[in-house]
């Protein structure tokens, strides 16, 4: 039974973090260094006390000559502690313009995500001193509020999996004292002494100097980081609200954008682009989008190109267009089996269409714009192209709108309208999932 201040700190933070995420278990990212070895012991104590399932993963980057030795160390430590262990080998192909550390980190998170069991949160060993180093590294690069807020105690990977950092408020010296007190063995990465790396230089030279001169430097920096993170949370909330107000389907409504201050307008465009995978548009690109979007010429041919796609304007909205969204294959999906995660549709009940008859084949088709339909509430029948144009759907989007067919008859146009002949108040709503 471990009785120490460090354990109490970690126990309370693990309680908050893992229960708020409803994690099925904890997957310790174990490098064999003192931080993650202490983390493993603390988590094991926590797991025994609170009946939580553990696993540990070592990622072998193959970058150090000692990598295999470290892997063996982690494996035998886990065997001794009776914690299920997995090692994951990754290979890092050097890309230009990205540092080796950044590539190793990216590969590591991917490997941890692959190795962690479903529903488990990944637990990482970054601590208070790492946090201050991250802050100073970001300051050096000229980061804004988000970057200076450094590491969050909880983050989410693209897969939806959570990562948690229960040691973020614990200092390196407390972690090392804990390891000494309990006689814990760990590996020492000799590259940590090499001041050629910026992080090591800050750790070994700069922070000790600042700490010796300014009382409470580390604690005060952590306080600033906490304030920055809270402020960023407010900005995130306001940004999401602004985006919801400006969004119509996947597009951005220009009139709604005009109702915002310049700073909030730029911010919404940035957020919208980041949801398309464009993290940092340059100010020049942003200014160009704004200038062309707000030009009085409704029909102006706005097209701002990015590597992954382009921003285009159609009437009163901005669209994100990629090669894919322009050329959607015509596909027919047989929906006779409608249960299960992998089906391309979700079924809801309400104002929709009647159920298909048993002898009707349901399919989803794209791009058959010449097929005719009489939408509910419209006086006559016309082509899908006509009705989509009528709804101001830009030409390049029309091919990628999913239409549900009963046999060869279009009955529902995803989220837009249904056929008058098939409409039913207490019917079914076909919601075709995005790819
Ligand atoms: N080889 C590894 N295998 C498994 N987990 C690892 C490995 N290396 C690091 N970790 C995990 O990541 C934590 C942070 O490690 P480190 O400070 O070396 O990473 P970093 O490159 O600064 O990455 P980050 O941006 O995530 O802080 C460790 O405490 C440990 O939990």
Automatic annotation (TrEMBL):
GO terms for molecular function: ATP binding; tRNA(Ile)-lysidine synthase activity. It catalyses: cytidine(34) in tRNA(Ile2) + L-lysine + ATP = lysidine(34) in tRNA(Ile2) + AMP + diphosphate + H(+). InterPro entries: Lysidine-tRNA-synth_C, Rossmann-like_a/b/a_fold, TilS/TtcA_N, tRNA_Ile_lys_synt, tRNA_Ile_lys_synt_N, tRNA_Ile_lys_synt_subst-bd. ATP binds at residues 31-36. GO terms for cellular component: cytoplasm. It comes from the Bacteria. PANTHER family: TRNA(ILE)-LYSIDINE SYNTHASE-RELATED. The N-terminal region contains the highly conserved SGGXDS motif, predicted to be a P-loop motif involved in ATP binding. Belongs to the tRNA(Ile)-lysidine synthase family. This is tRNA(Ile)-lysidine synthase. It comes from Pseudoalteromonas maricaloris. The gene is tilS.
